[in-house]
Amino acid sequence: MRRVLETAKNGWRRKGVEMRIIKARDYNDMSRKAANIISAQIIMKPDCVLGLATGSTPIGTYKQLVEWYEKGDLDFSEVTSVNLDEYKGLNRDNDQSYYYFMNDNLFSHVNICKERTHLPNGMEPDSEKACADYNAVIASVGGIDLQLLGLGHNGHIGFNEPADSFELETHCVDLTESTIEANKRFFASYDDVPKQAYTMGIKTIMQAKKVLVVVSGKDKAHIVKEAFFGPVTPRVPASILQLHSDAIVIADEDALSEI
Ligand code: GLP
Known about the structure:
Elements lengths: L4 E4 L2 E4 L5 E5 L2 H18 L4 E4 L6 H12 L9 E4 L1 E3 L10 H8 L11 E2 L8 H15 L4 E4 L21 E4 L2 H7 L12 E4 L2 H6 L2 E6 L5 H9 L17 E6 L7
Parallel strand pairs: 3-12, 4-5, 4-8, 5-7, 8-11, 11-12
Antiparallel strand pairs: 1-2, 2-3, 6-10, 9-10
Helix pairs in contact: 1-2
Bound molecules: 2-amino-2-deoxy-6-O-phosphono-alpha-D-glucopyranose.
């Protein structure tokens, strides 16, 4: 079925589903817009559950949130967070672990209660146990109010890699070559990049009340087109978000340059 696009001043809205695609001028504009939506969530529901993401794209969003916190405009004291994913086998002190990333970019700079921040335990060698434990954590927080997502070059969200079917809950993934390649810039060498990760599943992401995707750069233009304007398929995991009832994509002009 061909989807009808309705042009709006600031982007597009698909008829019939709620996915909104908001055009940002550039990375900074994208970051501010995303931070505005997260702020609104915290203001409207101070004890909300935020699903948080790593990767380079949300760094500007976190910076903006920290700035607003420092100005006294935001209060994280009642917020709970659950992160999407963690590398398997990386110690929390490793500066490439997502635990380290979240502390470095957000948690250490705001008044969030550390006991209410959650990530999969990358140091649990028993994958089944690590995933079951994280599913229990997600269940215990009572559902995600707003899930922030980046977009991998192959359409992955969290570490849900292209596959034959959508994985539902937390699982251990073998990272694809393209993901290992993309992430090796953060490590000393290819061999140092972990080859597996624990990630929240697609069902959990889809159950979030609101989903917010941030995308920036020409190198993402192709996948933006495939994921949000192509068919829904587990080969492009982010495409499932087209079926979410409240999904917002904030993409800069470069990322939208193929639309
Ligand atoms: C990693 C993360 C994803 C992230 C993706 C894109 O693989 N697990 O959550 O969205 O990278 O990263 P970047 O924003 O750096 O392009």
